[in-house]
Backbone:
């Protein structure tokens, strides 16, 4: 009898903690206006909760082995640490480093080459890609439709238990748009509740001089594309944005990533070639691979001393957002646990 | 009393014009013969013949026109025609009075391409949305062709919404007032312009997709 009471008590505690975990959207006062169209996909708790469950469920892949979280782990700011190129279905290796996911409401394009222009439709790319999840949208929708668990969740989110591609994508987008990183030390400094150390402040000055034009505050990206002078990988033959626009002036250009959460998102660059931040800085203080599209600001190596680099890294580490990375509301949802009563 | 009645009658709205109902039927033909999928048809050019395995395309913003005035339209703005699904081929419409022209767009407008996922005919579940990049595939024409030495299989995924290679093209045809309108995709005309020296596979936006959209748009014929 007592053990039954303990079990019931635990269940109540668990459900209370689940209920407390809500993902909502917020806009820091010093962030720019968002790009995401909230009118088209209004956020609700039920929709975000469904999106979170879908994000972590390998049901999205053909053989039910790969979820979005397989390559976008919450503990790595939703990137794939330690893997230069991401692993997909059946052990297949992709051609690019899985990008970190946060502050997506401010993004104007997605993927390293900007192939996708809207967050909600982005999920089609990994779901349909034969070496990522290898699942047709129609097959996925009919698979979800057969699940009483998902019919109920879609009804709660969209007032319709007939599952559609639109609702699937909107739920995934709704969850991802709540992934907001604005609790780093840098953010506290912006809000006047913390101060940089002397070293961080020195690094910040250097950052503003050399990096801010592309990795623009406070999101630490200007949403553009650039050729930063990396020699093309002879195996990957990746021309970047040129593949999308067909415009030679876009050859070897890749999306400029945010510099938030760098401690959690190594390796760096579109092909994950640099495992350490120091290697990244060394690249910018070295001769570049010259091509017609090399960003003009990189024609000359940055004159940074070894001490300068240490200061710069000290500043960059103030962009780590532990609260974001360890936020339980973004992690594996209890509904997907094998013994979950809701499943 | 009589002047009062007269005033009252004059205030009543004019009798509304009667609504009429009709059906637009889409099909594809080769040398006048309706095409079935997976069936070989001679194109009439040498020993060339074509079999379609897929023939799907978006028809958007259909209107029936009396001069430049819109007098009729179907209920739905976005329609996905799929030769493998006979229920998709008949489009009911309503109209008032008379019409002498029909106008529609082959493909999805750029504003819709630029926004988020859509429902109904536009739901990505229909397989007409690119996944490696954003945007609708306005038309899929796939099959085999015997008359070309270069390739037996052809695969045309026609899309792209950025100028100058946008593929959503407006088509206008003269059309008599009728409850039945047959809009035929004349594949003889299409394959006389899409010759063997052109690429057998086009699956990305660009000048080639734009040209294919123009050839396809020019191949619509009204049969009444």
Residues:
């Amino acid at each position: 009898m007592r053990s039954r009471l303990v079990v019931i008590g635990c269940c109540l505690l668990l459900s209370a903690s689940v209920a407390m975990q809500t993902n909502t959207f917020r806009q820091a006062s010093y962030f720019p206006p968002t790009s995401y169209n909230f009118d088209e996909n209004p956020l609700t708790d039920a929709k975000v909760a469904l999106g979170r469950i879908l994000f972590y469920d390998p049901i999205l892949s053909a053989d039910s082995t790969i979820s979005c979280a397989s390559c976008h782990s919450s503990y790595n700011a939703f990137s794939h640490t330690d893997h230069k190129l991401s692993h997909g279905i059946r052990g297949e290796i992709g051609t690019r480093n899985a990008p970190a996911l946060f502050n997506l409401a401010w993004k104007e394009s997605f993927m390293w080459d900007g192939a996708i222009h809207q967050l909600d439709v982005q999920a089609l790319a990994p779901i349909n890609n034969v070496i990522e999840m290898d699942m047709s949208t129609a097959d996925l929708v009919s698979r979800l439709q057969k699940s009483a668990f998902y019919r109920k969740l879609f009804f709660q989110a969209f007032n319709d238990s007939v599952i559609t591609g639109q609702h699937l994508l909107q739920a995934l987008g709704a969850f991802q748009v709540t992934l907001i990183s604005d609790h780093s030390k840098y953010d506290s400094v912006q809000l006047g509740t913390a101060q940089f150390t002397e070293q961080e402040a020195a690094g910040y000055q250097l950052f503003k001089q050399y990096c801010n034009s592309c990795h623009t505050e406070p999101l630490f990206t200007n949403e553009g594309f650039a050729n930063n002078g990396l020699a093309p990988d002879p195996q990957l033959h990746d021309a970047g944005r040129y593949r999308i626009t067909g415009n030679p002036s876009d050859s070897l250009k890749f999306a400029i990533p945010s510099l938030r959460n760098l401690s959690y998102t190594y390796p760096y660059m579109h092909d994950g070639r640099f495992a350490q931040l120091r290697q990244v800085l060394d690249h910018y203080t070295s001769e570049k691979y010259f091509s017609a599209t090399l960003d003009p600001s990189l024609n000359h190596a940055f004159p940074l001393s070894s001490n300068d680099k240490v200061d710069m890294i000290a500043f960059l580490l103030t962009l780590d957002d532990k609260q974001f990375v360890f936020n339980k509301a973004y992690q594996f949802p209890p509904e997907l646990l094998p013994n979950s009563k809701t499943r | 009393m009589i002047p009062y009645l007269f005033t009252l009658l004059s205030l009543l709205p004019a009798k509304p014009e009667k609504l009429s109902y009709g059906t637009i039927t889409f099909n594809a033909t080769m040398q006048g013969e309706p095409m079935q999928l997976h069936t070989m048809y001679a194109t009439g050019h040498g020993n060339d013949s074509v079999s379609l395995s897929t023939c799907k395309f978006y028809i958007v913003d259909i209107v029936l026109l009396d001069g430049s005035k819109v007098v009729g339209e179907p209920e739905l703005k976005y329609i996905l025609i799929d030769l493998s699904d006979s229920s998709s081929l008949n489009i009911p419409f309503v109209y008032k009075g008379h019409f002498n022209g029909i106008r529609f767009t082959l493909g999805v407008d750029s504003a819709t391409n630029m926004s988020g996922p859509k429902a109904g005919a536009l739901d990505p579940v229909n397989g007409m949305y690119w996944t490696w990049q954003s945007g609708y595939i306005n038309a899929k024409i796939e099959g085999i062709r015997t008359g070309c030495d270069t390739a037996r299989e052809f695969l045309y995924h026609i899309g792209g919404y950025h100028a100058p290679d946008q593929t959503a093209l407006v088509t206008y045809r003269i059309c008599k007032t009728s409850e039945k309108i047959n809009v035929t995709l004349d594949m003889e005309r299409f394959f006389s312009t899409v010759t063997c020296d052109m690429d057998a596979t086009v699956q990305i936006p660009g000048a080639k997709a734009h040209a294919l959209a123009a050839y396809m748009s020019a191949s619509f014929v009204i049969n009444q």
Summary: The radius of gyration of chain A is 21 Å. The beta strands of chain A are 225-226, 254-255.
